[in-house]
Design goal:
The chain has 200 residues and is mostly helical. The protein contains eight helices and five strands, in the order αααβαβαβαβαβα.
Length: 200
């Protein structure tokens, strides 16, 4: 509405597991409208402004175990922590900053860069490889997510998928979608570290 003046009913669009670019393209298609690159960029520039309005009236919560797990992973020299998200980069970083989690991620791939979540995962993996020093290699890839789209993306990049039922999908749905491991949440840090082959 703030950019195009549209007030469409988008309740039919499933947001979980999708990307901001995909949603933008779907709405434009429904409108039979082809936005310019500048209009697209203006729209994405507006998203963090709208996010600020939302977080000013709501009290976002952090899921159990997330902070503790990121603290452990960040301290482990064997681990390179990256972010694969359907959010545009500015919104993703603001959400992380809200909970003071932004310093844990050394790289990321975001929802304005690709419309397909699997392509975002591929991009993140390429950036991870680019960060390696001479003689280093990636031994194992894990992707933690809460939707079937995350599970599909993990398969595409040959990652082991740990699915958590903290979103709209329950544990049974995530197992059916093909996750390698499924947990209710990340609160049991020793169990999560065991799954990630990082148990001490």
């Amino acid at each position: 509405d703030a950019v195009f003046g549209w007030r469409d009913d988008i309740s039919h669009i499933r947001f979980a597991g999708t990307t901001d670019l995909d949603i933008f393209q779907k709405v434009a298609t429904l409108r039979a409208y082809t936005p310019t690159a500048q209009e697209r960029d203006t729209f994405f520039d507006q998203l963090p402004i709208e996010l600020e309005k939302t977080t000013a009236t709501l009290k976002p919560a952090i899921y159990p175990g997330v902070r503790e797990l990121l603290d452990r992973l960040t301290r482990d020299p064997r681990v390179l922590v990256g972010l694969v998200t359907g959010n545009v980069e500015t919104c993703a970083k603001r959400k992380l900053q809200f909970f003071d989690l932004h310093n844990h991620f050394l790289l990321g791939a975001f929802g304005h860069e690709r419309a397909d979540r699997a392509d975002i995962a591929r991009l993140a993996l390429r950036r991870a490889h680019a960060m390696l020093q001479a003689g280093q290699k990636i031994e194992k890839i894990f992707l933690i997510g809460d939707t079937p789209s995350d599970i599909d993306a993990a398969k595409i990049i040959h990652a082991t998928c740990l699915a958590v039922a903290t979103g709209i999908y329950d544990e049974a749905s995530l197992r059916q979608a093909g996750a390698d491991f499924v947990l209710r949440d990340l609160s049991n840090i020793p169990e999560v570290l065991h799954i990630l082959n990082l148990a001490e």
